[in-house]
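User: Predict structure, ligand cytidine-5'-monophosphate.
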Amino acid sequence: MVHGKADSLLGAVYLATSALTSVAPAMNQAMWCHPATLDNIDTLVQRGVDIIGPGDGIQACGDTGPGRMEQPELLIEQLANRFTNGKLQGKKIVITAGPTREPLDPVRYISNHSSGKMGYALTAAAIEAGADVTLITGPVNVAPPSRCKVISISSAEDMLDAAMVEAKDAHIFIATAAVADYKAVSVEAQKIKSTQKTLTLTLEKNPDILSSIASAYQQLFVVGFAAESKDVQAYAQDKLRRKNLDVIIANDISRQDIGFNSDENEVSWIDKNSSTLLSKRNKTQLARDLIEKIATACGSE
Ligand code: C5P
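Assistant: Predicted complex:
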């Protein structure tokens, strides 16, 4: 690349393109540390080539040191960073995601199947848009994006406490969390014995995090999600009014091909004046489209 050799497909493409170019070097540690290599890397950097990595550690040849190809997830993230659009620059966004767990005794809890995928995709899209993002998350199996503040919680009460603190100086609040509707009136200090034939639990309603935040902080642009199995539009409109939201994103959970635990979703964007269908697409793309609509709606563009 430094010498402009076009004797390989890669070399030829590099010379012929005017696109942004990123390089993820991978080589033996001594090769990477050689002044010839370092000078070449310097030259590429001066020409505007973006160098990702290399990582440091055990190498395929048995050596240890710098020269490992950077982790694929990190490569993707760094490449995505090159396309930051700045639509939410200067905005603080708080996003709730995943399920909550409501303890019954020291070993058991009530929860739900939320995967957290939608909330995590929105977090990544908001970071891409240049926002300062705080993700308040219940326990999920997805790794959180880097470059945001992550607060891991377990119960709805914990999520509410964290949200109250974080939303105070925020501009946008997005609630994707599947908050458990009920919690045990009292959590047993000892493990509940399984000797009884039947067990009756007394549950009480959890606080509604979204409406608590919407009424506590009037300045916030508040976005809720509504998973409905019938009369999707009507129930979502009602929720928009009752919870005092700016927008509600409604999806039909009676459909097997979208939503919960799926990588795809189809939703309706419902605000006080209109309803717009965002047809089925993968959650990453949907999240980017929703963040763009949120940026426009709250006047960030
Ligand atoms: O009333 P419903 O649970 O359908 O409302 C869904 C919306 O409200 C979602 O945005 C969800 O994150 C939020 N919610 C909440 N706290 C609750 C229940 C729901 O923030 N206790």
